[in-house]
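Complex record, two chains
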Amino acid sequence: MVKKKTTTIKVDYLARVEGEGALYIKIKDNRVKDVKLKIFEPPRFFEAFLRERKFSEAPDITARICGICPIAYQMSSAHAIEDAFGIKVDGQLRALRRLIYCGEWIESHTLHIYMLHAPDFLGYDDAIRMAKDFPKIVERGLQLKKTGNALISFLGGRAVHPINVRVGGFYKVPTKAELRSLAEPLKWAREAALETVRWVSKFPFPDFMQDYEYVSLSHPEEYPFNEGRLISNKGLDIAVRDFDRHFEEEHVAHSNALHCTIKGRGAYFMGPLARYNLNFKKLSPLAQEAAKESGLSDVCTNPFQSIIVRSVEVLYVCDEALRLIDQYEMPDRPAVSVEPRAGTGYGCTEAPRGSLFHRYKLDEKGMILDAKIVPPTSQNQKTIENDLRHFVPKYIQLPADKLQWQCEQAIRNYDPCISCATHFLKLEIERT
Amino acid sequence: MNVKPLVIGIGNPYRSDDRAGLIVLEKLKAQNLIDIELMEAMGEGAVLIDIWKDREHVIVVDAVDSGARPGTVYRFDVRQERIPSKFFRYSTHAFSLAEAVELARSLERLPERLIVFGIEGKNFKAGTSVSPEISRAAEEVADRILRDIRAYVPER
């Protein structure tokens, strides 16, 4: 006779609000029968909220979707609206946008590496316990993160919800001397980022990979932030404005979020690993060298090693920020002139955790008629579920708390943004 | 070391009752207090540690979701007590206020005096309206913050 047993484990600390999100795994006779990632998505609310608002409000309103990647929302919305109006932002204004994005990558990646993901690898419940054994390392993480924060406060006007970004450019731009003041802390940050790559590359990594389709922006000359075509390792190569023709969102019964797939092919993988695999040659020599030194080749297929790739990206953006500061000349005006016109605009930029797509339909006065926002976490959702479906069987004999730990670590490979796409309530493992 | 008392209000204005901390800030701002500094934050822990590390006297207000009656007000003197783990775990990012407090304690980066006020929210869904219990509680917390600041005499 088979003894039936159901175990339910609640993971509260990934949670926020009951009923909004959960990970559910069903195990029957020691086989994984089902994996469901339930996600709550504030962007859906924001889409409705944006309707009948003026185009100029979109960057500031969408920046509120996420406390950790406001710049990504500002950038994707500004680019989408500029696309609709036929405006091109280039030269030093374009460079400043790239620079502020560097700040966000430093901040967001460093938080994830040091405070959220590293404790998983080193066997700590959280960064607080890790800090007791490794205070200097945690201090380094905080200081590194602060460098990114300082860059955003400086260019964005303030640290919380930067308000200096607008359609067409900025409200105010720095002088050359002002910008130079950021160079010294960034030089320190570049060294700290190098140390970070070395530190995380020594972590123990589970042997795991799948046949993924990696998707990211790709630009002929640079590692992608604000511009480029959406490409993949399986033949996708499209302009951002063709997003809707190649990607589709499907309703799934277990989640009030939409699952995004590539038409005819299914799940895909976004974020640092995808960017790295599709754009390795565009990294600075220093970042490429550090990646090689850490044992990575120019393609990394183990999602657990995303923590190394994330660290390589931090190193790259420190390097890139210093380059941008070095070549900076103050532009003669903080923004190009903006003339609204009716139309639909598309924007896609690389948020720290993957491509963030925005689409706006505007009338001739620049009023938003319709908005669509597809955050990277909902695009990765199906891939996260697929990973767990393959990953859990390897650890199925583990006690529930250990299995839960492994699952959280696997989910964190994708740095899911709980602000903009997910609010995990609990992990439920049902064994029968 | 900056000795001016700093009040940090945490919240997302688009998550209904989550804006409780911001409402408290608005109420204090309306009084034009020149001897108190006010600051808005989203609740991301590492930023908080950075903000308060050079301060002597910091007061933080955030919405909480502990299962109590909506509008319930909590007060923690962080130097004297730990924040129970059921509080403040639900910030807009995984590394929230409670974690920031404990990490700062581990790293000896707590301000001389750190008071945390929590306001029990009812509705954290996406939206801009605030439950009446929470508005009333915000009024009470703004008053208590001022009394707290006036009553504090630093040990020197």
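Note: Residues 20 and 40 of chain A are 5 Å apart (CA to CA).
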